[in-house]
Amino acid sequence: MQRKRHLRVAFFVSSTVPMGKNPAADFFLPPLYPLCENAPPPWMVRMMTKLAAIMTGMTLMLAACKPAATAPAPDIPAAMGQAATTLLQSKLLHATSIAGVYRGQEFILHQGELETGKANPPDDTTLYEIGSVSKTFAGLLLANAVLEGKAALDDPIQQYLPAAYPNLQSQGQPIRLRHLITHTSTMPGMLPLQVNTVLQDFTAHATPAKLNAAYADYGQAQFWQDLHTVSIKGPLGKDYAYSSAGTELVAHALETIYGMPYEVLLTQFVTRAAGMHDTRLRLTPQDTGRLAPGYHSDNPVATTPMPQLPWGAAGNLKSTMQDMAKYLRLQLGTHPAVVESHKPLVRFQDDFSIGYFWNIGNNRQLGTHYVHHGGVPRAQSYAYAVPQYQLGVFIITNQSGDATAGAMESALAPIFDTVASLERAQ
């Protein structure tokens, strides 16, 4: 029988200290390695270097970030509470929710205020924008299609497209599905292309409004037009070039494979495989009041929700913590599509690979683990699956700025340390 423990704590933080201009998170863009000509701007390169260090040395980095007087928490709930308290000591952060699964036990914690001074903490009904963690869902669906024999990783993407795109090739080789799910297609980060320019100054207060304007009337028809203008600079399958546009192509390929809208396919799969009933790409009018308000950069005024992408697979999912706990449980199980999606497809370093959109790291404390960051203009999150400990963690906060990702990384230290201690004691 599944065991679930809920922890709810109020912890209020208010701060208006200005932040810097180098975002540690991004609008669907958590790249790890600037290895190609399609490399991101300098601020993102700095972020890549930082996230690469996480993948290769999580244990040392987290230990260095902990206060010297902090002792390991005695159990998982206490560790989660310590993580939330640590996170909300960070400037500008309002609230956080954490879902954890450890060896069959499930824990959910909500802490803080969604809006400063309004005493409205998040709860199990709160819908959060999980950002680029959405990509792992698309990867899972493609893994399932591969296992069912409906698709192959070496399929050229051209065979799934509505028109000829001779530009989607390099050195005589076509972009294939495997290139898209491993971010080695050298596709641009976003379409329309001007969005990539907007994101170069992510923390500017005008950025959310500019993004909303860019996507106000931008649908699949406009995406197909812009796709003709894309220039691919190979070699394919080698250089890491994080691409949300490529993820959208995967969603369309899945629609072609299964003959149904991506949104319907996704909902049906997660309901059937994980019992997730509160995860969706678009909100109904009844759900809008449950969506967490969020804050961009150091702006004290809540910003608008993330604009809708043509398919939404790159970063439009909204979910509750209860559903994300179910997703973690699925990722720690033996579902064939999960096992397939965790296979390393491209190895960039001895301790860093990528599977079906999952970043695969290996370090002394966690062993082989799967991680993805999510970032939108008003929320950031991390999802971790650590099979050797049967540990899954999802953490999210309703603020998005240059220090948010680093604050979450540091805050997770008590959880990882506690689990490592528990494992040693067994």
Beta-strand content estimate: 15-25%
Multimer state: single chain
Strand order of the largest sheet: 1-3-2-15-14-13-12-11-10
Task: Name the shape in a single word.
Answer: globular
Short summary:
With 426 residues, this protein is of the alpha+beta class.
Structure write-up:
The chain has 426 residues and is α+β, with helices and mostly antiparallel strands. 34% of the residues lie in helices and 17% in strands. The chain is built from 13 helices and 16 strands. The strands form four sheets. The chain has a nine-stranded mixed β-sheet with strand order 1-3-2-15-14-13-12-11-10, with helices on both faces. A three-stranded antiparallel β-sheet has the order 4-9-7. The chain has a two-stranded antiparallel sheet with strand order 5-6. A hairpin with a 3-residue loop joins strand 12 and strand 13. Helix 2 packs antiparallel against helix 12 and helix 3 packs parallel to helix 8. The protein is globular.
Helices and strands, with pairings:
Layout: E1 3-9, H1 42-65, H2 76-88, E2 95-102, E3 105-112, E4 128-129, H3 134-147, E5 169-170, E6 173-174, H4 177-181, H5 194-198, H6 207-215, H7 220-227, H8 244-258, H9 262-274, E7 279-280, E8 295-296, E9 318-319, H10 321-331, H11 336-341, E10 346-349, E11 352-354, E12 359-363, E13 367-376, E14 379-386, E15 391-397, E16 399-400, H12 404-411, H13 413-425
Parallel strand pairs: 1-3, 8-16
Antiparallel strand pairs: 2-3, 2-15, 4-9, 5-6, 7-9, 10-11, 11-12, 12-13, 13-14, 14-15
Helix pairs in contact: 2-12, 2-13, 3-8
